[in-house]
Design a protein that fits this description.
6 helices, alpha/beta, single chain, five-stranded parallel beta sheet, about 170 residues, globular
């Protein structure tokens, strides 16, 4: 069996991306090394009361990925509004990538991974630890800092910064 005979591996990197940060992009770049095709799945979860519409978040993620230099596989962006495991199954994904920044992330992710494994044991969850530089970056902090007039230029791309400032009137 040669490498050409192996089935293609599709991975999903889900999130709300409200907004997408450089920490997210770093994980996307790393995940793209581990699969043959990566789908960045933007959650249409109104329960989280996002600042940006799902269409705006999809557009921001697409723009940032188009401008990303190190892509190791094809990367697409799609929205989803159903169970993540159903979305992954529909896309024939073999794994779901999740980012961990701190121990506090682990407990929630651990529970979600257990439930996803019950729903479909064939889809693996792969945890990627955030790099030191991005461990304290969250979309919530970025929105708050921008709203209060702080500098966010080192944690989001210029395109996202512009959209965030327009949305928060700063």
């Amino acid at each position: 069996m040669t490498a050409h005979d192996l089935p293609s591996r599709t991975g999903i990197y889900p999130g709300t991306f409200d907004p997408v940060t450089k920490g997210h992009l770093h994980l996307i770049r790393r995940a793209s090394k581990l699969v043959d095709r990566l789908i960045v799945a933007v959650a249409d979860n109104v329960g989280k009361q996002p600042l940006f519409t799902v269409e705006e978040r999809v557009a921001m993620v697409r723009t940032d990925i188009e401008n990303m230099h190190e892509k190791h596989c094809p990367i697409t962006v799609a929205r989803f509004d159903n169970l993540l495991i159903h979305f992954a199954r529909d896309k024939e994904a073999s794994c779901i990538f999740r980012g961990l920044r701190a121990v506090s992330d682990f407990e929630f992710e651990f529970q979600m991974t257990g439930m996803n494994a019950r729903l479909d044991p064939e889809i693996e969850t792969v945890f990627l630890m955030a790099a030191d530089k991005w461990q304290f970056v969250s979309s919530s902090f970025v929105k708050e800092i921008c709203t209060l007039g702080g500098d966010i230029s080192d944690v989001v791309t210029p395109a996202v910064e512009e959209r965030l400032k327009a949305k928060t009137h700063r």
